[in-house]
Amino acid sequence: MISIEQLCLTYTQENAAVDVFNNLSLSIGAGESWAIIGPSGCGKSSLLFILAGLMQPTGGCISVAGQSLHGPRPDTALILQEYGLFPWKTVWENVILGLQIRRVPARQWGTRLNPILSELGLEEYTHHYPGQLSGGQRQRVAVARALALSPDLLLMDEPFSALDALTRESLQNLLLKIWQEKKLTLVMVTHGIEEAVFLGQKIMVFSSRPAKLLDIIANPQVGDPDYRSTPEFYQHCARIREMLELGRL
Q: How many angstroms separate the CA atoms of 142 and 157, rounded?
């Protein structure tokens, strides 16, 4: 689904060149779930924005679904930490925004959106404004808006970090269910070790900047709703925590 070859990213800060990535190469298979974790400022979100076509690297080649990536593509959806909702629009108006931009006929909106809103528990909130919703509900609206576009690639930048623990786990379970049902390719940036292990079939672990890919950890038990209570889950968490501590040195 995604091929990254010798990716480089450098920017200028106070008249000095700052390397973020240097010759990063990897591939992500269709329908896989990947988590990206590393210290703050290492370039995790920059990598996600590059995959979304919103940021151009300074070197290297990226292809998505067999096509070279030079800008945003219609089958990629991006969900941000701040939800990206317009406070003056209702839930329904926020969710249909992408369909309006893509000129999808209004007669098709209900067919597309009603099952999504039902699955996310938002049916009774369609006339509410974001300010009338909890944090978890606002994030569900952001997910609904992304799913309305029927993406084959879903990118998420720390989507649950601002939520309380119980709401976060509930939405993690929901995301896992959506990924399994819709066969999406999922790439998520997170600071949470447990979140990365629960959701990522593959986990990219980066060092401090300039980011070095410390490891790609295979995590085949993702998808098991009871995975959090298994010894393997805690072993992966301990391994990643150790790598992150060493990667800061």
A: 12
Please write the tens of the pLDDT for every residue from 148-181.
888 899 999 887 776 778 878 888 888 888 888 8
Amino acid identity at 130: P
- What 3-state class would DSSP assign to 152? coil
Q: What is the C-alpha separation between 194 and 196, in angstroms, rounded? A: 5
Q: For tokens 């066969």, what's the residue?
A: 183
Residues 52 and 160 placed together within one structural domain of the fold: yes
Query: Could you tell me how many residues make up the chain?
Result: 249
Same domain, 180 and 57: yes
Q: Which CATH number belongs to the domain containing residue 217 in this structure?
A: 3.40.50.300
Q: What is the DSSP letter of 145?
A: H
Token pair belonging to 147: 């799913």
pTM given for the model: 0.86
- Which strands form 16-28's sheet, in the order they lie side by side? 16-28, 2-13, 59-64, 67-68
Sheet with 185-189: strands ordered across: 76-79, 153-157, 185-189, 33-37, 202-206, 213-218
